Amino acid sequence: MLYSENVNVRRNWEVCTRGAAATRWASMYASINKYGDIVINRVAHEKLGKPEACQILYDRDRETIGLKRAKPEKDTEAFPIRDRGKAGGLRIRANRLLREFGITLLETRVFHRCQLDNRGVLILDLRYSQPLARRYKRSSGMQHY
Question: pTM of the predicted model, to two decimals?
Answer without folding.
Answer: 0.76
